[in-house]
Amino acid sequence: MGEVAKKKTSLAKAVFSGSLGNMLEWFDYGLYGYFAVIISAEFFAAEDPIVGLLLSFMTFAVGFLVRPLGGILIGAYADKHGRIKALTLTILGMGICTMLMGCLPTYQQIGIAAPILLTVLRLIQGLCTGGEFGSSLTFISEYGTPNNRAFLVSWQPFSVGVGLIIGSTSGLIITSILPTEALYAWGWRIPFICGILIAIYGVYMRRNVPDSPEFQKRKAEQEAAGVEAKVKIPFKDLFVGHFASIMAVILLLAGASTSYYLLITYMPTYISQFVGTSMSDAFAVNTSVLAIYLILCPFAGKIVDKIGRRRGLIIGSIGFLIFTYPVFSILVQHTNPAIMIALLGILVACQTLIAVGNAVVSTEIFPTELRSSGVGFAYNLSAAVFGGLAPLAATALIAATGNQISIVWLIMGAILITLVTSVFLLKRFYGKDGKVK
């Protein structure tokens, strides 16, 4: 095998191993969102189904609240000991938690202990997930150059889509072949228990991949200079020297995270509960929309590499502001899956530009020695505020107004924050040529 071929194989293996944890993470997060109606019935004692659903999404949000802590703790470990060591730890922790969720007894079996145990697992998983995202995004980006970094990083949101589509497909199969009684009794548990298989494979893959060239270079320079940095939580270094970078990531992700969770994770619940389709049709729509997302992610990476980070984010944001209200206005009037897929596909095209643009910006505006910590903290803090609370906020807003279309105001408001940040704040980091200053 020639040198070029070896380099390409090594790069592909690195990107794949770096993306596996995200696939597992979003496999689980997707499952929780997809089966929220069942989980609310099995783990929360509420006479009103909407109240049970709200409690279920509150537990979903809890996992996000500790993600910034996981991002900065595990990120600091990754910045000191390497991305691969941190990533091996996080994927194993996520896999074990996912499996245990599928084994938990219900409220009817053990009472109040059931939702408490579910919440504890969500908290542990949130810590692991917070460390996984920043470290894996950093790991992949450090294999790239300014000319191909967005394309390489695009495989991370691609892997997110793969995890969600596996979860959505699992939901589609299970809800299609099992009667309702069996689905509630044990069927929903099968995909959660199978999550450990992804984790085991991920640990194997990551233990056979070298750390990123950029990290190895910095480590070698430190060793040559006789520098042995202590493992510390870099709050001071981040907030004093890179506060603008933290704010840029948080504000950019406002639109990306809110729109993503509402368009994809929340859609099966929204379509089945508020539009009036069957759960199997809702999963069919969601799986198809995810397939569109997967196809478009690498193309979005190529586009962002070509036209620049800011321009890609601005185009995606404007597209959302133009199409969101018309899409949902038509969506709530139709139960035809093909029409729903076509409508949501328009917004997903905008979503991929924002997701990829935001991911690559996050890695480029932090220095190597603080990259995992900075990306992990800022990305996860914004995801906790804007993403984790989005399904809860959407359900509460629809319940309060009685209007299914009210969800669009959450999406458009968050997207507006991303647009303003892209137009103004990112000027601090990117020149007119679209490259980092």
Unreliable segments of 5+ consecutive residues: none
Number of discrete helical segments: 21
Q: Give the topology string: H per helix, E per strand.
A: HHHHHHHHHHHHHHHHHHHHH
Query: What is the architecture at the second tier of CATH?
Result: Up-down Bundle
Structure classification: mainly alpha
Strand segment tally: 0
List the helices and strands and how they pair.
Layout: H1 3-34, H2 36-43, H3 49-65, H4 67-81, H5 83-103, H6 107-110, H7 113-141, H8 149-153, H9 155-177, H10 180-187, H11 189-206, H12 213-224, H13 235-241, H14 243-265, H15 267-275, H16 279-307, H17 309-331, H18 337-364, H19 371-387, H20 390-401, H21 407-423
Helix pairs in contact: 1-5, 1-7, 1-9, 1-11, 2-3, 3-7, 3-19, 3-20, 4-5, 4-7, 4-19, 5-7, 5-11, 7-19, 9-16, 14-18, 14-19, 14-21, 15-16, 16-17, 16-18, 17-18, 17-21
